[in-house]
Write a structure and sequence with these properties.
Layout: E1 4-6, E2 12-14, H1 20-45, H2 49-53, H3 57-76, H4 89-99, H5 103-111, H6 121-149
Length: about 150
């Protein structure tokens, strides 16, 4: 038995050969991995969509409503929505945090017509709400990715 191994079906396969079950398992793992990436991207673009695809309705609704509410409040308070052409590292980090909100980032850009007003506390809080919405959505997309891979999250 040193030169062979027992497969899941109980048959003996010679070392160096691959059983049909192992090939099928590899294909299933590749499909699951590709689906997990697609679910993560869907969950990023539309908050909660990754969980909805996985039929986790409560989490999907909670993600969508929470991220949406934070974006609407943040933009309504005239928080700073960072653009891609940031002048320093903090502007770049703010941009990635805001962009984490997925499609809601573009909704926030369309709501913000008068520009940011961070000279008042409301505008500063609005900036924090927008960044929190983005980070929360990224965490939700990561959770959907892990759940799609079959890992307990």
């Amino acid at each position: 038995m040193f030169m062979s191994e027992i497969t899941e079906q109980g048959s003996v396969a010679e070392e160096g050969t691959v059983s049909d079950a192992a090939v099928a398992d590899g294909r299933r793992a590749e499909k699951r991995k590709a689906a997990a990436y697609a679910i993560a991207v869907a969950g990023w673009v539309v908050p909660g969509l990754g969980h909805a695809i996985l039929k986790m309705w409560g989490r999907a609704a909670a993600c969508f409503l929470t991220v949406g509410l934070l974006v609407v409040l943040g933009a309504g308070m005239r928080g700073n929505i960072f653009a891609s052409g940031g002048g320093d590292a903090f502007d770049t980090l703010g941009y990635f945090a805001d962009l984490g909100a997925g499609g809601f980032y573009f909704v926030a850009r369309s709501i913000e017509k008068q520009g940011a007003d961070v000279s008042h506390a409301n505008g500063d809080y609005g900036t924090r709400f927008l960044a929190t919405a983005g980070i929360l959505n990224l965490l939700a997309a990561l959770h959907a990715f892990e759940a799609a891979r079959g890992h307990k999250a």
